[in-house]
Design a protein that fits this description.
CATH superfamily of the largest domain: MazG-like
Largest sheet: none
Helix content: 55-70%
CATH topology of the largest domain: Helix Hairpins
Oligomer: single chain
CATH architecture of the largest domain: Orthogonal Bundle
CATH class of the largest domain: Mainly Alpha
Strand content: under 5%
Number of strands: 0
Distance between the termini: 50 Å
Structural class: mainly alpha
Amino acid sequence: MTPSRDISRLLEIMAALRTPVTGCPWDLEQNFATIAPYTIEEAYEVVDAITRGDLDDLREELGDLLLQVVYHARMAEEQNAFAFGDVVEAITKKMIRRHPHVFADKDGNIQPAGVKSAWERIKAEEKAERAARRPPEPAEPTKSLLSSVKAGQPALTRAMELQRKASTVGFDWNDPRAVLHKIREEADEIEAALDKGDAEELASETGDLLFALVNLARHVGADPETALRGTNAKFERRFAYIERALAAKGRSLEGASLTEMDGLWNEAKVEERSEAPASANSHGGRG
């Protein structure tokens, strides 16, 4: 089978991969749940390519993300639920409907100032239509305030949205220092769980600490996802410094002690601070 610029070739490739007996054993074993983590990963890799300004890589990553759509559509087609064409039709219908100022006739055009209000109104109509198509759910005594926070978001983003929603009714701290106190409290609970050696409790308490850290980020006006990305990049830079410094001495990471690597880590911090503007300097331990 040869490559092609036509989407139909990609659909054919996926169909071949999912064909029993002759297809790929790994692909045949997959389902929506097992593929979902790869879908999220590919979306992040698209964002990473954009952040780095690497358009060649962006082309590749967009292809990987498109493959995820094709994969899910193929599995749905096998269940006679919908096919790739239905996905395309649904999104084209939605975009045309949400942009009457672009796709309507001249008499139907609206001014730019009215675009946002029209968008929100149309989205609300679509949401109501989707709700009407769903099977009725068991009646709840009261609808939760948090039910509108989407479950499929990355955990950091969803934690932020849950906290924001709760804050609209006053369930929130008024001072970032109060959140900092909560963080210390959660850290103490992790230490107690360590003493007990309870893996399940440790996982739960670690989640509580992460949730509290997201709360602190919200209170100081920082996006936790962006903040963590920045720290990841900083960690990579400093670790690369350790690797370069050891390599210059003809040494390997495996042959270096933790004390030696810590010393080089601190050297990297000093070098960064000397190169950065004074206002950008940070202080602390290995962070």
